[in-house]
Specification:
The chain folds into four domains: 81 residues, Roll (Ubiquitin-like (UB roll)), CATH 3.10.20.310; 79 residues, Ubiquitin-like (UB roll); 73 residues, Roll (Ubiquitin-like (UB roll)), CATH 3.10.20.310; 320 residues, membrane protein fhac: a member of the omp85/tpsb transporter family (Porin, Beta Barrel). 15% of the residues lie in helices and 42% in strands. The chain has nine helices and 27 strands. It is globular.
Length: 652
């Protein structure tokens, strides 16, 4: 369609785009005021302009506005919000394609924001190129995407019209050199996973290449070289061929650990203790990744380089490990508060490698309203094995509880297998010994008169735990079981023995999205001695933030004439709570607890004290921070109406 100069003048008020093109022409040329009408009778000067292909926005309707063909057209000015839609990919595009488009789309990024015609056109063109590339990565090499804009009821609608074309498939897949791996070749081809007839999908090719590299390393070939895939596309046949060259080398057995010359954090012998591979076993590349994580987890290594190197024996491969040191010292602090326990502050200083390898010295102090403590600990991590910890500890403490007061000196030694957030283990255990001298004050049960006794106690505590949960700090499913047995000998006037036994179990279930239901039980018994002979600090107590919430610390159970708890020989407890995520990193936790202490050696399920309340959780990157507020449901005389607990981690 052609425009007379008169029409060009009218078009100057239609859009900014036409203003730039038309107005200079109107000023630059001298044209008769009444040009001759078009000679072609099929052309109508009042009809709308046809869309220009690829422009992305429609020409304005010069006759729109009043319905009068002689009315002055309205200019399209300012910005407007828009919506967008993709047509043509339903049923052929993967979920991953949609996710990638949403993440990278310019239209989606600015969805809901005002845009003018030029911005809409640019964004539509960018997204058309993006969608074309994503479709080709899925195997649609003939994909084409066009754009258009339709007037919506309230907003313009940007449409991406996709024509995917035919799906290309592999006509042939060649993995040259794989036969040199012998009987492992078939397993390696299976790991690659791509065969003739499969779609030419870039993600599957990348995944197959990664799987092949990983599997060939796991199958004993430390020096294997896997070339990049070469793909040749036949557009006429809608097929492609894939070729990769694999140089596997020879399969090897593990040799020894070696460290390069220079200053290293650990020697070869200690690294071999941490490693999970043994000399003479088939090489497995995943064992090197596991060793790398374990060395970083020591907190003594800032970076580590692990690589296979040739051994003098061509059947073996040595593992070279180079380490860079991390700062070995740490200062830590902790604050807490609990009703009945009072305020508590703890500070510690640690040198994690004062006695190499991994021999740490820890100096620790506690200052609280009811507890004061000073202690020194020697800890040797990875002691002749991964996550095996040897600990010796000396402490001097002063405890002031409602039930008793105790000034104690203790020496303990423990060998244990630990779990951690990097390598959460199913089974953990500990064996230990303890020598304690304790000066303790309580009352005579029959009269309520104060008394003071000194105990010399020897114990051999042992624990065994199973963790079937999905997270160490914040589990949402699974269960945990733990048992503790401590045979003890006590000297107070005479020598006698007894045994403490405790069993704990907890379970976690994801009820709905954002809601975890958790429960626990605890049973304990002391056999072999009457309650009054056992030191008050070694008896069972119940009540508090990690026990029955709503009650003071250790306040549940039988009481003396002064209404103070005296502890017992057995206990029963349970807890139920719902951990509900609310918004962001916050959550609420309604809870219901129950339990009691008994004078009999076997625990009972009667006479429970119940507590209920509500907690708040802040889920930080190092674990949940909890604040629980509870109240006794059936309080005894002297129990508080409200109890508050603040600590790090879930209650169980």
């Amino acid at each position: 369609m052609t425009l007379s100069l008169g029409q060009r003048g009218a078009a100057c008020s239609a859009t900014a785009f036409l203003l730039v093109l038309a107005c200079p022409l109107a000023r630059a040329q001298q044209t008769p005021p009444n040009p001759a009408p078009p000679t072609d009778p099929t052309l109508d000067p009042h009809s709308p302009l046809a869309p220009l292909p690829g422009l992305g926005v429609d020409w304005p309707d010069l006759g729109a506005g009043s319905g009068d063909s002689n009315a002055k057209p309205q200019a399209v000015t300012g910005d407007t919000r828009y919506t967008y839609r993709i047509d043509g990919i339903d049923g052929i595009a993967s979920t991953l394609l949609h996710q990638r488009f949403d993440q990278l789309s310019t239209l989606n990024t600015h969805d809901g924001q005002p845009a003018n015609a030029a911005q809409l056109d640019r964004r539509a063109r960018e997204d058309a190129a993006l969608l074309t590339g994503l479709l080709r990565a899925e195997g649609y090499y003939d994909a084409a995407v066009t754009t258009r804009v339709e007037a919506g009821s309230s907003r313009p609608l940007v449409i991406l019209d996709a024509d995917p074309g035919a799906l290309y498939t592999f006509g042939g897949v060649s993995l040259t050199g794989l036969d040199a791996t012998g009987d492992k070749a078939e397993a390696l081809r299976t790991a690659f996973g791509i065969k003739a007839g499969d779609p030419v999908n870039a993600d599957k090719i990348a995944a197959g290449e990664t799987a092949l590299r990983t599997t060939i390393g796991k199958r004993g070939f430390p020096f294997a070289v896997v070339g990049d895939p070469a793909i040749v596309v036949d557009h006429a046949a809608h097929t492609a061929t894939l070729a990769m060259v694999v140089a596997p080398g020879t399969s090897r057995l593990f040799g020894k650990v070696v460290v390069p010359p220079g200053k290293q954090v650990f020697d070869a012998a200690h690294i071999a203790e941490i490693a999970r591979f043994e000399p003479g076993k088939p090489f497995d590349d995943t064992a090197l990744a596991d060793l790398r994580r374990a060395l970083i987890q020591t907190s003594l290594v800032s970076s580590v380089t692990i690589k296979p190197v040739d051994d003098v024996d061509p059947a073996l491969v040595d593992i070279s490990v180079a380490t860079e040191p991390a700062p070995p010292r740490t200062v830590a602090g902790e604050l807490g508060y609990g009703t009945g326990e009072g305020a508590r502050a703890e500070v510690s200083w640690t040198h994690r490698n004062l006695f190499p390898p991994e021999g740490a010295l820890i100096l620790r102090g506690v200052l609280g309203t009811q507890e004061q403590l000073a202690g020194a600990t020697y800890r040797r991590n990875n002691f002749h094995g991964r996550d095996r910890v040897l600990t010796f500890q000396a402490t001097a403490s002063n405890l002031k509880r409602t039930a008793y007061e105790a000034k104690a000196l203790s020496l303990t030694g423990t060998l244990e297998r630990q779990t951690n957030i990097f390598f959460q283990k199913k089974w953990t255990w500990s064996i230990g010994s303890e020598l304690t001298a304790s000066d303790e004050r309580d009352v005579i049960l029959s009269t309520g008169a104060p008394r003071r006794r000194t105990y010399f106690i020897g114990a051999l505590p042992t624990t065994l735990s199973y963790d079937g949960s999905d997270d160490l700090l914040n589990p949402s499913r699974g269960f945990r079981l733990a048992g503790r047995l401590s045979p003890e000998v006590s000297l107070e006037n005479h020598v006698f023995g007894y045994a403490r036994l405790q069993f704990d179990a907890s379970a976690y279930k994801q009820a709905t999205k954002g809601v975890v239901v958790a429960g626990r039980i605890r049973l304990g018994t002391i056999a072999g001695a009457p309650r009054d002979a056992i030191a008050p600090s070694r008896r069972f107590y119940s009540g508090g933030g990690a026990s029955v919430r709503g009650y003071g610390y250790q306040d549940i159970g039988p009481r003396d004439p002064n209404n103070d708890p005296i502890g017992g020989r057995s206990l029963s407890e349970f807890s139920l709570e719902a951990r509900v995520k609310t918004f962001g990193a916050f959550g609420v936790v309604p809870f219901f607890d129950g339990g009691n202490i008994y004078t009999t050696p076997l625990p009972k399920l009667t006479g429970f004290r119940y507590g209920a309340g509500l907690g708040v959780r802040y889920y930080s990157n190092f674990g949940p921070i909890r604040i629980d507020v509870g109240t006794p449901v059936n309080p005894a005389k002297g129990d508080p109406r409200i109890a508050v607990y603040v600590s790090l981690g879930q209650a169980f």
